[in-house]
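Q&A log
Question type: sequence-to-structure
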Amino acid sequence: MRDEHIFNIIEHAPPSGLSDGELARVHAHTEHCRECRHAFEAAQISQLLLRERVAETIEPSPFFQTRVLAALRERQVGGETSAFRRLWNATGALVSSMAATVAALVVLTVFAPGTAQTSGAREAVSAYDSYSAEEVLFDQSDATAAAAGDQMSYGQVLSTLYESDE
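Response status: OK
Response body:
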């Protein structure tokens, strides 16, 4: 009997709900098994605490009923809010800030100064402008390529490949 613990008996029924045979088996086992004795005592204490808690009556505060009824009346008078209104209350600030950001980007894109050029003006600017993105970023100019010998710079290769046939 030492090898068989009584945990399954304790877990399936409260100590007051055990039959006489089960109680005899529990008491016989708990004389030799300290762990099971602690578990059975804990079950008895838990049952006693639950009985005391159930027997205790808790009275609500004096104006509890008045507050509950007032809240119910207020909810009935106000009516139910629509799903759109609840959604707007939850996400209104986020949607408003996103709309303001989009509007600011549209204004900056459409009305930015100096971005509108005609094709003739663009060709005139590119004819006089000898800078490429590679030259500005990597400081690769034609002078450094000529000083390096016969090697062409990256900018020269790209301009040769993408030269227009005009």
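Response note: The mean pLDDT is 77.
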